[in-house]
Amino acid sequence: MDRKFKQIAKLFQKLPGVGPRQAARFVLALLEKPEAELQELGFAVANLKKEISLCGECFNLSDNGLCGVCSNPGRDRTKLLVVEKVTDLDSVEKTGLYKGLYHVLGGSINPLDGVLPQNLRIKELEQRVATLIANSPVELILATNPSTTGETTALYLRDYFTSRDSITITRLGRGLASGSNLEYADEITLRNALESRR
Ligand SMILES: [Zn+2]
């Protein structure tokens, strides 16, 4: 295969879930596109970080400043649901069942991949909790994935925040198969998990 082709395919392989074959398919598909569409894509990618930023409060995606959840005065400020990624937040938000606030950690503790607690937004979570409990007691809902790293993270956070005043810690409950991913859970499963938190 051509050297340039391989070079571009390698860039696609840096995305989650994209292997060499899928990457080659992406490059071939792009080759079929009109020049204008490629320019548009290239421009959007080049400006991604300028156009889309993270919410200063919860690290959800936001076009400017606070995200739609944090800037909504109708949200319940006594509940803080902690997820690994923005895509998990999206899944919960789509159910329409949860009316509280979120905190996006930015991943889960995974020493094999070099992700340690200090690489996650745990200090930021601590500050957030401190601000919220200044007004009222807070339920911290641990909604990391039911995978090994997600469970490790939940245990770490439970330890970290346990025995502090004005904080109740709960974990998403039954229905989520162990090893599964919140992002792909269907609405009924998420509803069960939210309602049976413990
Ligand atoms: Zn936010």
TrEMBL record:
A zinc finger (C4-type) spans 55-70. GO terms for biological process: DNA recombination; DNA repair. GO terms for molecular function: DNA binding; zinc ion binding. Keywords: DNA damage, DNA recombination, DNA repair, Metal-binding, Zinc, Zinc-finger. Pfam families: RecR_C, RecR_HhH, Toprim_4. The keyword Lyase does not apply. Gene3D superfamilies: 3.30.60.80, 3.40.1360.10, RecR Domain 1. The keyword Iron-sulfur does not apply. It comes from the Bacteria. Residues 78-177 form the Toprim domain. InterPro entries: DNA_Rcmb_RecR (IPR000093), Rcmb_RecR (IPR023627), Rcmb_RecR_Znf (IPR015967), TOPRIM_dom (IPR006171), TOPRIM_RecR (IPR034137). SMART domains: TOPRIM (SM00493). May play a role in DNA repair. It seems to be involved in an RecBC-independent recombinational process of DNA repair. It may act with RecF and RecO. HAMAP family: RecR. PANTHER family: RECOMBINATION PROTEIN RECR. Belongs to the RecR family. This is Recombination protein RecR. It comes from Candidatus Yanofskybacteria bacterium RIFCSPHIGHO2_02_FULL_50_12. The gene is recR.
